[in-house]
Amino acid sequence: MADPSNAGNDLSPAQQDALVQYTQVTNQDVEAAIPLLERSEWNVQIAITKFFDGETADPVAEARAAQNAPVSSVRFENLQESPLHSSSRRPREAGPAPAPRIVPQRDTIHRPPFLLTLLFTPFSIGYRVAAVGFRLALYLFSFLPRSLQPRFLTNTVSGFWSTSGRRMLLPRDTASRFKREFEEEYGPNDLPWFDGGFAQAQDLAKKELKFLLFVLVSPEHDDTESFTRETLLSPQVTSFINDPNNGIILWGGNVLDSEAYQVSTEYNCTKFPFSGLVCLTPKQGSTRMGTIKRLVGTIPPSKYVSELRSAMEKYSAELIAVKSERAARDAARNIRTEQDSAYERSLAQDRERARRRREEAAEAAEAERRAAQEAEESARKAELREKWRAWRAGRIEAEPEAGTKGAVRIALKLPERAGGQRIVRRFRGEAPMEELYAFAEVHDLVSSQEPEVGGQEPEGYVHEYDFAIASVMPRRVFEASGEAMRDVIGSSGNLIVEDLE
Q1: 438 CA to centre of own chain
Q2: Dihedral angle computed from the Cα positions of residues 40, 41, 43 and 46, in that order, rounded to the nearest 10 degrees
Q3: Which domain range does residue 273 map to?
Q4: Beta strand pairing status for 211-217 and 274-280?
Q5: pLDDT per residue over 99-114, tens digit each?
């Protein structure tokens, strides 16, 4: 469906709202909807009614024209100029009669005001009690022989208990009941009865550009059974209706049902059985449904089929033209839809690529920021580490002299990154193992006697050793703990420094 905003830019906001409501209900093109709404004075309900029922003469316009027409004060009539005679000589309106769209309405129950109900409550109760008693008396008299029953009671009983009413159902249920009763009466058949109401069948015929053949029967009519058995159920008529090339939608109704009775009233059916053929009549209006054929009474099957075929051939060309126009319009709409979809897909791809570029740029910026932060943190840690090494080098205990009682002699082999040399040194026996780790860490500063040795311990810095000291045979790793060296290593030891990385 086309966008109303593009086709009616010069419309007022109220007219655009009416156009949107109308196109949403009827699914009609905007180019054809705007003229119809203008003819309906932009009344959405009137326009929708004209779309489904066809456009007829406007009663308001006719009343205004009749009011403005000059009226003669004296009128002379004779037999030739009488209204009845003149109407018969008037040329008939060109084209088929419009086919009204019948929607069955349930009977509404009008309740009296509460005060009247309250006032007539005693009479209502009395009437119900009398009715129950009368029915009971009729029921008891019904067991007596007919000769002993009073005449007025016999007539009353027969008239009282007889009923010819049929419960009003929904259109689909009414169609199912008609089909079931038809099969019970005439047996199984191949007639494709439409499972729905008359309005739904007419809408389907308009949408799919088919012919709607509706059949109205009256069980009380003498010609109903002969028409059904000899004409409607004949192989010639059945095959003609079932032929998909003819495009016929068959709807049937019993005039005892409310919907079928309304259809017979609207289509002026005075004799049964009645058959009517309805289709779209583009020449009379782009949305008008017209009755193109009326068949009444008993008709031979060959004539029945020929009458229907001749009427259908007369309007088949118009329906084919409308179908081609709709196909072209649908094809153009599909092309526009595909183009819009392709544009939306391309736009979505562009958006996705732009989003990915933004994400990649953000990730690169975040990685660069983290790298700079890590480099800054590494530099800060390296600076603090060097300060700590300088401070710790100034706090290394002096080597005890040879022969000092309780001293521990340690031969320590440094890793390759520190030169790989082997150092022999004495430590106090009570010195903690952490002192040995600190000596291995700052040996280069202690041996070189750098002037940077000393200073204060950096605040908030916790030094972590990146090596371990272990014995060779047997292998044992010593922790940088506060235990005394003599208790852990003994009087002497041959140790190596191993990098943890």
Answers
A1: 76
A2: -20
A3: 171-329
A4: antiparallel
A5: 788 777 655 555 677 7
